[in-house]
Amino acid sequence: MKLRTTKYFIKEGTSNLRRNKVMSVASITSVIAALLVIGIFFIVVLNVDYAASALESQVEISVHLVNGLSEGIINAMSGEIEAIEGVKEVVFVSKDVALKNMKQKLGDKGYLLDGLESDNPLPDTFVVTLTNPQKASSVALALNSMSSIEKVSYGKDELEKLLKATYVLRMTSLLIITILLFISIFIISNTIKLTVFARRREIGIMKFIGATDWFVRGPFIVEGILLGVTGAVVSTALLGGGYLYTVNLIQKQMLGFLALSFMPFGSIITSLAFLLVFVGIVIGAIGSLLSVRRFIKV
Amino acid sequence: MIELVKVNKTFDDGHKVLKNINIFIDKGEFVFLVGPSGSGKSTLIKLLLKEVEPTNGKIVIDGKNTTKLKRNDIPYLRRSMGVVFQDFRLLQDKTVYENVAFAMEIVEAQPRDIRKQVPIALSMVGLSKKSNLYPKQLSGGEQQRVSLARAMVNGPSILVADEPTGNLDPEMSRDIVKILYEFNQRGTTVLMATHDRDIVNAMKKRVIAIEDGVMVRDEKRGGYFDEA
């Protein structure tokens, strides 16, 4: 497409917007509302993913041993476990240390465990950390085949629950985002329909003096894209500000530990801006194409 | 140049607007298409512009069978023809100059060609001095002259005029026909639908008459009526 044709499209498209000020503002507002909701879902999904992967990387396997193993056997086992592929580190926690740790965790209520020293119900444990969380099940399998081991556990259920919740959340967001996209396309297409209707005579004239369909559509597509992109920029700014504010608020309050699993602002704002501007362009273009369709057939 | 072979057009409601039309117009001819309102003149023009499709039959323009034309090629067919209508169809928010230049912008002409051709077209219709006025500041005859300039600015080989004098008084009408005649003298094939009998009788050009969708007459140097 020639540069001056593009210039013509932009000039006409912007003048369409100005001519139709009230409707333009109204539809930008509606697009902002829709994109805000889309953006919120996007932020939530990103953060849940982020938290899930943080959790995944913390996967440890605890290996409970049968009672009364000698130090020699324990050392030998430790070596054997370290040799399993995917194991990064093996730490032995004796039953006495485990009891002490538990008492510490309970704090004031530690006295509840008094008297258990002579008959400690906690097992001796190896805490195994992994080079890669995806190796958890294969390492667990290898551990299970060893003798003198009572139980191997690695939070498999929790991990699966989290992954399942992420999946449900993703699907719900996808559904809601799709519905909102359709609504935004409808809003934009309605606004542009007004311009198209006001200029239907002009479209007819353009067509009979030999303008191609794309030449007629050009200015309306520019108009639609401008509506979409303006909405996208405003909603990105609002969401970015809102995100910073919310994260700060949570960090200042006693909820500080939650903030650890929030995505940093810098990485979220870039992907959000790209997503919303892209969505803005697409809904703007589709919306305008839909509204010109009927009048262009001359 | 323009050829219609066994063309029929029946509207969706079953009304037969054109029945077995056969017309051959050669390069450089000046042809009047006459007939009462509702006789099918306008439909015939719409068929040439491919605004409507013939029910059957063949239409050849400039060597191309337009009945087989794809939708995307219609604009290029229209660029080979200049068109003028009874209601002028000018853009009210553009000046005379801009209205004519617009026809060149649409075909993505070079700006320097636009600056060169538009004044030439305006001087051909005698409106050089009014190029900065808006259509509503002009008389009907002047507006039609703007639309003639617009139709001719891209140098089409065919000019189709649908009742170009229908809204004009006799004096203005004569001006318009004079300009059409000048275009014809420069080699443009002109087809003018009209029911202005004075003009037709005065020009003594080829006349094709349509009544109730049927071609009733085709005379080399005819008048509005047989006896004229």
Polypeptide structure, described:
The complex is a heterodimer of chains A (298) and B (228). Chain A is of the alpha+beta class. Chain A has 2 domains: 8-55 and 159-296, no CATH class; 60-154, Alpha-Beta Plaits (2-Layer Sandwich), CATH 3.30.70. Chain A has helices at 3-19, 21-57, 71-82, 95-106, 136-144, 156-198, 200-208, 213-252, 256-259, 265-296; strands at residues 60-65, 87-93, 125-130, 149-153. A 4-stranded antiparallel β-sheet of chain A has the order 2-3-1-4. The longest helix of chain A is centred in the middle third of the chain and has 43 residues, at 156-198. Chain A starts with a helix and ends with a helix. The mean pLDDT of chain A is 84. Chain B has 228 residues and is of the alpha/beta class. Chain B has 2 domains: 1-80 and 158-228, Rossmann fold (3-Layer(aba) Sandwich); 90-155, no CATH class. Chain B contains 7 helices and 10 strands. Chain B has helices spanning 41-48, 74-79, 96-106, 111-124, 140-152, 170-185, 197-203, and strands at 2-10, 16-25, 30-34, 56-61, 64-65, 81-85, 158-162, 189-194, 206-211, 214-219. In chain B, the strands form 2 sheets. Chain B has a 6-stranded mixed β-sheet, sandwiched between helices. In chain B, strands 2-1-4-5 form a 4-stranded antiparallel β-sheet, covered by helices on one side. In chain B, helix 3 runs parallel beside helix 5 and helix 4 (111-124) packs across helix 5. Chain B starts with a strand and ends in a 9-residue tail after the last strand. The chains are: A alpha+beta (298), B alpha/beta (228).
